[in-house]
Amino acid sequence: MTFDVRGYAAHSPSDDLVPYRFARRSPRPDDVTIEILFCGVCHSDLHTARNDWRNTVYPVVPGHEIVGRVTSVGPAVTRFRPGDRVGVGCLVDACRHCEACAAGLEQFCQEGPTFTYNSTDRLDRTPTQGGYSERIVTSERFVLRIPDGLDLAGAAPLLCAGITTWSPLRHWQAGPGRRVGVVGLGGLGHMALKLGKALGAELTLFTRSPGKEADARRLGADHIVLSTDAAQMKAVRNRFDLIIDTVPYAHDLNPYLPTLRHDGTLVQVGFLGKLDAMLNTTSLVVGRKAVAGSFIGGLPETQEMLDFCGAHGVTSDVEIIRMQDINAAYARMLRSDVKYRFVIDMASLKAV
């Protein structure tokens, strides 16, 4: 049988999120039921609530940086038991049999992954709803173990911001002897610095804001380059093996391409859509450079990231808010007024 839960939902692109009661689906044999303790607030939540990508089905309960405790498991579950500290990220299902799924790259499922919210359950065709709620039911394949010792609130953003930056850092082999640039210091950028430093890379932050230097160094940056300063940009030509671009809006990539060394790659992780300026291929061709994209991560890679964070004490810098403050948090997020991720204390839902 289904069960009712409390949450917060958007009902249109222009209205505030409001309290919302809805039904979670009946648990299946391989399902884990989780009491949600904290949920991170991602730019994707805001984009979906406001229908910026023109695909939102209302009402929608956002939230895909979910951490909590297992309350019950189905008879086929083998990896979890009640009381375990667990997380759910951006995915709750996939086809499980295509080439990508077989390789543990469920985010690239060739039949299309099932997202934690604003998606459709593959079996009963009901809408999926996210972590701005009391509980969630998910197949154990898509549940992640949160290492002991990690602060749960600080761990929540690892389920999206963390894996979004970890995946390209690992794929393009960031580590000792590698020079990595990070464009933008927000929710994604600060995780790229923390994870890149823990991996042993030499890190440079590109920023348009001179006042961010102290914070960038605290987070792991070895160098800071003011991207609006032509002399500083010229001084780092042919320097970087990898650049992680975390900027969440359309911007010109061309100024960064000359800063890549030969065979270097600029990876876009922050923006979905058309770029404002066409790419000048001169830098790409002359240096055999590349512009690439990366999208969250599969379940094995996400668990690897969580285990690494547990071993190195890496969590997100967070500001904890009540569920009732989500609309104010969205407004502040648009002003970049957060360091560096809002996380909702879901205990506040009990007051709704």
H/E element order: EEEHEEEHEEEHHEHEHEHEEHEHEHE
Q: What is the share of helical residues? A: 10-25%
Strand content: 25-35%
- Number of DSSP-assigned strands: 17
* Main β sheet profile: 7 strands, mixed
Q: What's the overall geometry?
A: globular
Structural class: alpha/beta
First-to-last CA distance: 24 Å
Give unreliable regions as ranges.
none
Provide the gyration radius in Å.
Answer: 20 Å
Mean pLDDT, as a whole number? Answer: 97
Describe it for me?
The protein has 352 residues and is an alpha/beta fold. Helices cover 23% and strands 26% of the residues. It contains 10 helices and 17 strands. The strands form 4 sheets. Strands 3, 4, 5, 8, 9, 16 and 17 form a 7-stranded mixed beta sheet that branches. Strand 11, helix 6 (213-219) and strand 12 (223-226) form a beta-alpha-beta unit. Helix 4 crosses helix 5. The two termini are 24 Å apart. The model has no long low-confidence stretch (mean pLDDT 97).
